[in-house]
Every structure is written in structure tokens, then in C-alpha cells.
Specification:
The complex is a heterotetramer, with 2 copies of chain A (327 residues) and 2 copies of chain B (331 residues).
Chain A lengths: L8 H26 L15 H7 L7 E5 L3 H7 L3 H8 L23 E5 L5 H14 L6 E6 L6 H13 L3 E7 L2 E2 L2 E2 H4 L16 E5 L3 H16 L5 E6 L17 H9 L2 H11 L5 H24 L19
Parallel strand pairs in A: 1-2, 1-3, 3-4, 4-8, 7-8
Antiparallel strand pairs in A: 5-6
Chain B lengths: L7 E3 H15 L5 E3 L17 H5 L4 E3 L4 H13 L5 E6 L7 H8 L2 H4 L9 E6 L14 H5 L5 E4 L3 H13 L4 E6 L6 E3 L13 E4 L4 E5 L3 H13 L5 E5 L2 E3 L3 H11 L2 E8 L4 H12 L9 E5 L8 H7 L3 H12 L1
Parallel strand pairs in B: 2-3, 2-4, 4-5, 5-7, 6-7, 10-11, 10-13, 13-14
Antiparallel strand pairs in B: 1-8, 6-12, 9-11
The structure holds thiamine diphosphate (TPP) (2 copies) and magnesium ion (2 copies).
Chain lengths: 327, 331, 331, 327
């Protein structure tokens, strides 16, 4: 753990709960895909859970996030209800989006999950808009835009950071640098060693942090979110991490450095965090195990309920395309 | 703004008033776009002049040249409950923001199962005739009309601009509001304050019995001029101003063509794969047996907008082009 | 690649071979796109696998995720005399590169008065059926067809993919080459090496006398299946594979419909303001008096591509949809 | 003048000739617009001429440029023939583009003027492509992308710089920072004090230079162009300057700081350069005056020839849309 201010026990446990729930949810997702009971195109965030856990413990329910196809962990940490999440994965009428959006477009405004986009880079400009609204209405709310390392090379990233900085928007840009964009290594596509250094191009603070270190990540998140909330403007956080299961779950990983991957998996941040919590006396093995068992049960119940839920009616094709007549 | 002589106002004044009057009623209306605030003179054509002074720098913001960020900011603010009006200076610049418009603004209501909506108005100007050539004068409404989840609106007079823009702003869907640059100075009768013209409803601007002409934007003026001319010969055109290009008012168009038996569609956009094609395709199917002649279309040739004045004039659809198609329809 | 059993190859193999064979003949052909090189496994579907190893890292380059820069690089290299083939992974991502495609690639020949040209091929895949939902499955060919200066091409079998892609690469205009993701694994007879299928020419894939069905891409397979079925009832469909969507082969379509008197157009894209509208509009005008029934169209409903499997199936145009329209045309 | 290596007399005079020709061409353009003999929408580059003059003396005829609507000076310095330029301004068949492109789309490949774009930011990605072709063919040629300060906020800028850096393309990005984008002040739209600092976000050298100082600008151009030609990759040059006649010629300048403008015009780089050349003995008043008179004559002849040239035939609408049939 980083040699920094350590958050209190409550926060640490909250972070553990969030990240463990995301991990267990991921394990179950991979299980139901593998066993064929719920096949879907799935972008596993396994290995990256500490990042949104640390962000989310610094957010209120009324703060919002905009995330990407690989954003299950971001939303679970933000508090999205599992039944609705799984309902959407299964394409059922009980899903967050009545089955119409699917895994790449999960939305749940009640918990602040405002957008999941399948277009690289597009979470950022829209997050700006949410933040702009908070600013104009003087609401003291914050929006977090999640995105990947490779997304930092697309135009929308550039435009969004410039605008956010000019207008001091209450937004935090969180780049989850998992070292790959699809099959392409970070270094091959990105012309700067640290994405956080790009912040200087926008007169904005940039924080480079080990996203797998709960304490360091907590402090980075707190600094940036406080800054945004206090009207001091946006921050770019580059959180270093790794994705354990390739780009899309089931791909052959042939493009990945085997050693790099083995090393990253050996340093799985979740068991590490867990061991540290016990070692430091923040929680007992017993308590954490009970939590995990309960989470697993919750997830499995959510899946069961999704699998048995009804499909949407076919006339949903004509609904929600345009608003129901108003004038 | 609207106290002009004889109750006549320009289109610029009409649009400016529509924005001002709407902003007065509802705080959630904000304006974003390049040069839109007063230190920047309210845009190159002055359409938003005075509004930042009146409503404050927070609600009226000149932006960096970043159309993706501009539309994205509009989308996010709309999702949070505001009613942003963003300006993309010229329609061709929408090409750098199509992801935001098409993959996001248009789809978020559906993809979220109705949990979020994007009550965003995107204003954009265009039109040939100013010698701005290939990259500043395209009419791209067919692209947006082909995109589910977004409304496409344009006007044929200052008062129509006022009423339709008001409706776009207060509509709960994303609306593309198309302005014609060359007609900004066009004058017309001032609208009633806060009057709205419903979206999705066409307007029969001239009744007639021989040929229906469906049009929109400044082309409606061309249709009326041709109608005046042909009336002298005893040919009575019924001129339908579509107002909303998508979703278009099938009922009004079909009812009119059923009466006249003949249809010519007239737009400035390139004819091939343009808006007229959809209308022709629907009408020939729905009114099979009622049509007295095939549906005909007037539109630009399949080339970029040329610079040279004679070429530009030949490119632009004219009264002569429309008259010609009408005469063919009457044969 | 092409030595497969029974001379059958997949579409992926056909496209891969078309690229490889063209690159062997001409040095100026380069490939740019996300993950296209071999360290990145030749793309998520492996379409370009082996090519960087064979032709070198300089000619086959995996790019950053930067579609504007990718297409821009293709345009510039094409202007300098090369024949780049760039990949935009999915058609929906073209929305971030529309400026490059529409304001530049399509217009530079005209705007420069013929001094420069852009012999660029832009490959992009799409198609519903894989549960990728709203942002990965749109068919946007109508946008490109409405844009003067660019050709739009797609194929209905592996051999067609090979021959048409070869023609796009060696064509002196920018070409949009549309691939269907779900049909990548589809098998068919291998083409002859270096065979090219001319652009701008449709192909009558089945002769018939009662109804002409115009289609393109995987929908041609649907048309053939329906033709087979109706043939048993004595209804003989003439199936026309457009191959080049723009500029489309009017002569072949008109000649066919003149014979059959009936036309149904079938595409996966949203029906409203789709490619079918233009074909219907032209045919009803040109063949007025020859048509025995109105032109009918099959296309997707006006909504984003939905995720849920039953919705996705209902969204996609099917054999039943086509059969239904054909029966209506025959009434 | 900057305290740097001073180029030799030949180069200095060449720079003066180029910039003076651009200045005189601009004066005539404004004259024919004002007197109504050739009305057109015109984006005057008056005040910015030193930049492309310094760039162009470091380029060969086979090197290329991609420029923007405000790029007359860039093309005149690159050697575009005046008759063809004016033919295009007048929309005549004798123009570079047969009158079809117009002022915003001047192209003349024979002198390396490959592209004029009216879309902000779009000169950069296309310049990359030309440079890519030079690199692959190992031609030792260089492409220069010109653009404005406000263009540095659009996505295409970001994507192009990243790609050029990753691939070490022989391209030079020349930002002519005239302190305004249309009516908007630089500071209001751009979140960084120096655009050249953005180069660091792409692992690329950034040069901040007084674009009105011939010696400093020459050295910046030479450094960057040599670098590109030697295969060392791209450079971002931010050349500080000012546009004397607003965004579009004829606009009311109400958005401009009167003092700032007056000061900039008082420091017109062209008379300054001229005086310095005479003072340092590089040229006599007599020689320069003769040059200028000759240039003015050339320009007026080009205008006269454009005005009397024939319009294009109307069937040009159908020509050059697609290639003539090939196969
Ligand atoms: C504009 C656009 N281009 C390409 C893609 C295809 N694509 C999907 S994910 C991805 C890689 C993104 O990598 P990164 O930003 O690092 O996020 P990660 O997947 O690693 O979390 C690509 C290229 C896309 N979705 N959108
Ligand atoms: C994508 C796009 N957005 C907006 C415009 C309208 N526009 C034309 S020039 C300009 C200002 C550009 O300023 P800058 O880059 O500083 O160049 P300058 O004109 O000062 O030389 C704008 C906003 C455009 N042409 N393209
Ligand atoms: Mg990544
Ligand atoms: Mg500028």
C-alpha cells in the first residue's frame, strides 16, 4: 500500500465491498457465459476493480458517472442494482433498459449511472455536459468520466479536456490504463509515456497513480473529486491497472505478453487488498468471507431472476424511439 | 427585437427572439456554440446577439472549436434535465460530430429503455448561393431523417422559424433545426410572442387542385413563385410546406396528392438518395391508382457545391427546374 | 489461403486474399487500421491476418484509435499516388470520420478540378444479429450514397467480396466497401486469382419473370431463399444483386422491372430514407405505365438496433418480411 | 531580429520576396473586393507572411503543404502561379481548379500545394498521409500542415499529432497563432498558455517562436524541416503572429481589442523586415522597391487575366465528380 494517508476503516471496508462485489459479479458473468446459460459479448474488467471502488466511496448517490462497454465494475461500485443489471444482460424486460440497450449501454439514473457507451472516447464529452448542468445549477455535484488508455488517442478526449478546463467543470476524467486497447499495446498507439502528462496540455492537474493500490487510488480520487466539487475544475487521473481476460472475454490473448499477463494476475489487487485488510486488523477473515458468500448469493439470485424474467414485448421496437406525443 | 417597422422582422431577428423568449420562460435553456456570446458579437451572422448580455455568461457560452465537445455538452446537460440549444455554425461541420448526434443524442432514449432523454436542439445553417463552395453549403437532412430518434425541422419564413424553433426547444427529443444562411436577412411578418408551431405537421401554404408540390425551407418560396406564375395559365398548384422533415406528415401529403393526383417534390439537397426519394416511394405505393402521373423530384445534381458563379447557379434548384418538372407531371 | 477443401473459402479468406493478391501486384497498396497487423492478430476477426508478416510493417500498420487520423492518412497517401485500404472496424465508428470521408475524400477530385484524386478504399463491417445493439450494427450506406464523389460497394458471397474489393482497390475513386460481420464465416466457391468484378454493374443472380427483387449484401441470400420457396408455387422472382449501391446500375434494374412489371427492394438498413427509397422513386417515374403494382420496400423499422434477442430478430429483415411484400406486390 | 544564426543573403532575399509578394497579393485582393471588381469571401492573412516565407525557403518544389482557407500567403510563398490563383478566385476556367473549388479549396500539386481545406483542423490528418507516402517510398520529402491557433482545440489536431509521432512521419505542424479564432480570443478557447507545450503530450518537440521575426522563424523552420527530412519525426511549431483584417475581410472587428490590433499593425513585420534588410546592407531601397513594383505589376496582370478569362462550361458539374471510366 502507498505510503499515504490511510482512509478510515469504514471507507476501507466500503471500498473492499464494492470491489469484491464487482469481482464476484465478473466471476459469475464469465461462468454463465462459459456454461452457456447466458451467452453474451462481454468485456471483463477483472483486475481493475479498485479504481471505481476508490472513486465511488468519494461520490454521493446524486453524483454521476459515464462509463464504457468495459464498465460493469464502475457501475457495480456506483451501486447499480444487480437484478436490473442482469436483467439487461439477459435482454429481459426487467433490465435497466428493458433489454433494449444491452451490456454495452447499461443506464441507471437512480444510482447516477447515466451513460454506458460503446464508442471509444464518447463518455468524456457527455460527462462534461452533466457537469455543466451541475455547474450552472450550482448543485455541487460531480460527474466522473471513465475511459481506457487507448481512448486517450481519439479526438473526443482532446476536445472534452480542453472544454472542461476552460470552463472549470466539476468533472473527473479517470483513465483506466490497462496497457491494451483491444489487441494493441499501449506503447504502440500512444505517443506519450504517461497519459497523465497530457493534462498539462489543458492546464489541468494530472495524477499518475497505481490503480491497483487502494490507498493511493483513494487519495487520488479524493483529491480530484474534492477539487471538482469545490469548483476548482477538472482533473485527469491515469490509474495503472491490467485487464485479466483480454479485450472481449473468450479472445485468444495471442497478442498479449504472456509474462506480463502472468505477473499481473499473480498480483491480483483484490486478494492483496483483502490480505492487507486482515493483516492490518481492519477486518477478520470471517467477516470478509461472510461478505463474499453473501455477494455471491446475491449475484446468483440476480442471474436466476434475470433468466426467468419475461422478454420485452415486440412493440418495444416502437417505444422510446421518440417521446410520447407532448404538445 | 420584434418592434420593427410594419411588424416585419428578419429571420435573424425571429430566431434571436425565439431563443430569448424561450430563455425567459425556462432557466434550463442554455446556448453553446462558437462565437455565440456578445464579446464575440453573437456569432458571425449575429443570430445570438444580445443573449449573453441579457441571460448571463453562464447560460450563453462561446465555445472552443470542438463540435464533438459542443454537442456532447449539450447531450449531457439535456440528460440532466436542461434544454440546451447548441449551434453548429455550418451543416458541413456536423460531419465532425456525427457520433454524438447519431450514436448518442438520437439513441439514448431507446437504448436506456426510456430512462434518459435528450431534449437538445442543434441549430445549423447551410445553403448554396454565397460562393462558399464545397465544404460550407451541403444540405444533409437526408442523413438525419434516416436516423431514428431525432427530429429534423426547417422553416420557410421568419415567423415559421420562430414558432418551429420554439417547439424544438420545448420538445423532449433531439431536434436538428436547419437554417439557411442566405435567407437570414429575409423579412416577414412577426410572429406572436411565444407562439409555437407543432412539430410533425405540414402546412398547406397554398391550396390548389392540379399538382401538389411538397417542399421545405427557402424552396417553399420558389414553389409559391412558380404557383403564382402557373396560376395565370389556369394551373393551380397546392404547395405543402413540410416544416418537419422527419418524422414527416404523411397524412397531409397523402390527402393532398389524393386530391390533386400529381406530386412534385422540391429540395435544394442533392436529388439522389435525398428526402424526396422517401416521399416519392411512399406516395407511389400508398396512392397507387390515384396518381395521374409519376411522382417527380427536383433537387441538386450529384456533385459537390461548385464555386464558380455560373456553376453554382446551375447547381441550385430554381423556379425553372420546378416549373419544368411540373409541366412534365401535367403531360 | 485459397487452397481450401472443395475450393470453398470463407468471406474472411476471400477478403484477405483480395488484399494479399492486390498487394503483391502493386506496392502502393498499404493497409491502415486498428489491430490490422500481426502482432495484433490481424484484427478482431482476423481479416488481415498474415499480411503484415508477408508485406512488412511499413505497409500494414496497426493504428491508434483515431478514425479521423486513419482516414486522413489514407486520403493523403492516396493523393500522393498510393492506393491505401483503411479499415474502420465497424460502420458506426465512421461517424467520427465523416468529415474526412465526405468533405474531403469524396470532394477533392471535384474541388481541385481534377488535379488530385483519392483512390482510397475504406472497409467497414456492420450488421445486426450478433447482439451488439445500438452502436455497432447500423447500415449507413444511404448516407454515403447521397454523397457525390464516392462509390459504395458490397458483396453477397466470398467470391463477390474478392472481385469487388479488388475493383475498389484499383479504382481511382474513394470506395466504401461494406462488410457484414455475421457473414464473415460464410463459405462459398473460391474466386479466380486476380479476378475483378466491375463496379457500377448489377448482377442478375436469378432470372425470373413475375417480380424483380433488388437487393445487396447478405440480403441477396434471403432473396434467393424466398425465390426458391415461391418458385414451388409457380412464382418466379428475378433477383438482382446491386453490388455497387452508388452509383447504382439503373439500366439493369429498369430493364428487369420493365420485363417483370413488379419490384420489391430489400435491405437491412432502416427502410425510411434508405437506399430503397431512391430506387423506388426512380423506377416509378421511369417505368410509369409499365409497372403492374407499386414498388414495395423491405427494410428495418425506424428504431436503433435493439439488444434483446427477440427484438433484434424482429428488427432484422427476414425471409417472411420479403415474402410478404412480394405477395402484396402480386395482388 | 532574434539573436540567432542569420541565414545568408540569398535566403534572406528569397524570404523577403516571398513574403512581400504575399503582402502585395493581399493588398490587391482587398482592393478588388472593395472596389467591387472581384467580390469574394476572403480571409486575409495580412500580417502572417513571414511564417510561410521562412518555411518555404526550407522546402523543395517536391515538398508539399496542406493549408486552410486563410492560406493565400502559404501558397504564394510555396510558389503557386498567380494567374491560376486569381483565375480560381474569379471562378474562371483558367483557375487552378477550373473555378470549381474557389478560394477555400485552392490546389496546385505542381508547386506542392496539395490541399486547402475549409474545415478547421482537417489539414493535419491529410498532411500525415502525404508524409506517410514519402516515408514508405523513402523519398526524403516533407509535408507541412498549416493551421490556426483555435484549430488546436479540435479532435483532428490531437489524432494527427499522436499518429505522426508514433510513426515518426516527415511532417511539420505549423500553427499560425494570430490570437483569434473567428471572433473568439485565444485565451477564451484554449486551455494552455502556449500551444507548443501541447507537443509534450505527443512526445514531440514543440517550438514557440515569434512568427513575425524572420530570423527566429527561419531557424525554427529549418530545425523542424531538417528533422522531418532526416527521418527524426514531426515537430509542432507555434508561430506567434496577428491577422490585421479580422476573420473574414470586411467584418467589423468589434470583438477585437483595439489597442492590441493597433499595436500589432504598428509592428507590421513586413516593413520591419524590409528596413532591417536595408539597414544591414542585404539589399538597397532601390532593389526592394523595384521588386515590389514588379510584384504589384505581376499581381495586377494576373487579376486582369482572371477577370477576362472565360467561365467554366456548365457541364463541369458532371466532370471530376468520379474518375472517367477506367476498367
Ligand atoms: C470510435 C471507436 N473506434 C473503435 C472502436 C472499437 N474498439 C472498442 S474497444 C477498443 C479498445 C479501447 O481500448 P481502451 O480505451 O484502452 O479501453 P479498454 O477496452 O482497454 O478498457 C476499440 C478499438 C470503438 N468502439 N469506437
Ligand atoms: C469544424 C469547423 N468548425 C467551425 C468552422 C468555422 N470556422 C472557420 S474559421 C474558424 C476559426 C479558426 O480559427 P484559427 O484556427 O485560429 O485560424 P485563423 O482563422 O485564425 O487563421 C472557425 C470557427 C469550421 N470551418 N470548421
Ligand atoms: Mg485499455
Ligand atoms: Mg487564429
Amino acid at each position: 500500500m502507498a505510503n499515504q494517508d490511510i482512509p478510515n476503516q469504514e471507507i476501507l471496508l466500503d471500498m473492499y465491498k464494492k470491489s469484491a462485489l464487482a469481482k464476484i459479479n465478473d466471476e459469475n458473468a464469465r461462468r454463465v457465459i462459459m456454461n452457456g446459460s447466458l451467452p453474451m459479448i462481454y468485456y471483463s474488467p477483472r483486475g481493475q476493480e479498485i479504481i471505481p471502488a476508490a472513486i465511488s466511496v468519494n461520490l454521493n448517490n446524486s453524483d454521476s458517472i459515464c462509463t464504457i462497454y468495459r464498465g460493469m465494475h464502475d457501475m457495480v461500485c456506483k451501486g447499480i442494482p444487480l437484478e436490473k443489471l442482469w436483467g439487461e444482460y439477459a435482454g429481459k424486460s426487467t433490465g435497466t433498459c428493458k433489454g433494449k440497450g444491452g451490456p454495452m449501454h447499461i443506464t441507471h439514473p437512480e444510482t447516477g449511472c447515466m451513460l454506458t457507451t460503446g464508442i471509444v472516447g464518447s463518455s468524456l464529452p457527455i460527462a462534461n455536459g452533466l457537469a455543466l448542468s451541475y455547474q450552472i445549477k450550482n448543485e455541487k455535484k460531480v460527474c466522473v468520466a471513465y475511459f481506457g488508455d487507448a481512448a486517450s488517442n481519439i479526438g473526443a478526449f482532446h476536445e472534452a479536456l480542453n472544454m472542461a478546463s476552460i470552463w472549470k467543470l466539476p468533472v473527473v476524467f479517470v483513465c483506466q490504463n490497462n496497457r491494451y486497447g483491444e489487441h494493441t499495446k499501449f506503447e504502440k498507439a500512444t505517443s506519450v509515456t504517461r497519459i497523465s502528462d497530457r493534462a498539462a496540455a489543458y492546464g489541468m492537474p494530472g495524477i499518475h497513480v497505481d490503480g491497483n493500490d487502494p490507498v493511493a487510488m483513494y487519495n487520488a480520487a479524493k483529491t480530484a473529486i474534492d477539487r471538482a466539487r469545490n469548483g476548482e475544475g477538472p482533473t485527469l487521473i491515469e490509474a495503472m491497472t491490467f485487464r485479466f481476460y483480454g479485450h472481449v472475454f473468450g479472445d485468444q490473448d495471442g497478442y498479449m505478453d504472456k509474462e506480463e499477463k502472468a505477473k499481473a494476475m499473480a498480483e491480483d489487487p483484490l486478494p492483496k487488498f483483502r490480505a492487507w485488510l486482515i493483516e492490518q486488523g481492519y477486518a477478520s477473515e470471517q467477516v470478509l468471507m461472510e461478505l463474499e458468500v453473501a455477494f455471491d448469493k446475491q449475484v446468483k439470485e440476480a442471474i436466476a431472476s434475470a433468466l426467468s424474467a419475461p422478454w420485452p414485448e415486440l412493440d418495444e421496437l416502437n417505444i422510446d424511439v421518440l417521446a410520447a406525443a407532448q404538445h | 427585437m420584434m418592434e420593427s417597422l410594419n411588424n416585419q422582422i428578419t429571420t435573424v431577428e425571429a430566431i434571436n427572439s425565439a431563443l430569448a423568449d424561450a430563455m425567459t420562460i425556462e432557466d434550463g435553456i442554455i446556448l453553446l456554440g462558437e462565437d455565440v456570446a456578445d464579446p464575440e458579437e453573437g456569432g458571425v451572422a449575429g443570430v445570438t446577439r444580445g443573449l449573453s448580455t441579457r441571460f448571463g455568461d453562464s447560460r450563453v457560452r462561446s465555445t472552443p472549436i470542438s463540435e464533438q465537445a459542443i454537442v456532447g455538452a449539450g447531450i449531457g446537460a439535456a440528460m440532466a434535465g436542461m434544454r440546451p440549444v447548441v449551434e453548429i455554425m455550418m451543416m458541413n461541420f456536423a460531419t465532425v460530430a456525427m457520433d454524438m448526434i447519431v450514436n448518442h443524442a438520437a439513441k439514448l432514449r431507446f437504448m436506456s429503455g426510456g430512462q434518459t432523454q435528450v431534449p437538445l436542439t442543434i441549430r445549423m445553417a447551410t445553403g448554396a448561393g454565397l460562393s462558399t463552395a464545397g465544404q460550407h453549403a451541403d444540405y444533409l437532412e437526408a442523413w438525419f431523417a434516416h436516423t431514428a430518434g431525432i427530429k429534423v425541422v426547417t422553416y420557410s419564413s421568419p415567423a415559421e422559424a420562430y414558432g418551429l424553433l420554439q417547439s424544438c426547444i420545448f420538445d423532449n427529443d433531439p431536434c436538428i433545426f436547419i437554417e439557411n444562411f442566405i435567407a437570414y436577412a429575409q423579412k416577414g411578418t412577426a410572429p406572436e410572442k411565444n407562439s409555437r408551431i407543432p412539430l410533425g405537421k405540414a402546412n398547406i401554404v397554398r391550396a390548389g387542385k392540379h399538382v401538389t408540390v411538397v417542399s421545405y425551407g427557402p424552396q417553399v418560396g420558389i414553389a409559391l413563385a412558380v404557383a403564382e406564375k402557373l396560376s395565370a395559365e389556369g394551373v393551380e398548384l397546392e404547395v405543402v410546406d413540410l416544416r418537419t422533415i422527419s418524422p414527416w406528415d404523411k397524412a397531409t401529403v397523402l390527402e393532398s396528392v389524393k386530391r390533386t393526383g400529381r406530386l412534385v417534390i422540391n429540395h435544394e439537397a442533392v436529388k439522389a438518395f435525398g428526402v424526396g426519394a422517401e416521399i416519392a416511394a411512399v406516395v407511389q405505393q400508398e396512392l397507387w391508382g390515384d396518381l395521374l402521373a409519376p411522382v417527380r423530384r427536383v433537387g441538386a445534381p450529384s456533385c459537390p457545391v461548385p464555386y464558380s458563379r455560373p456553376l453554382e447557379l446551375a447547381f441550385m434548384t430554381s423556379e425553372a427546374d420546378l416549373e419544368n418538372e411540373i409541366r412534365l407531371a401535367l403531360k
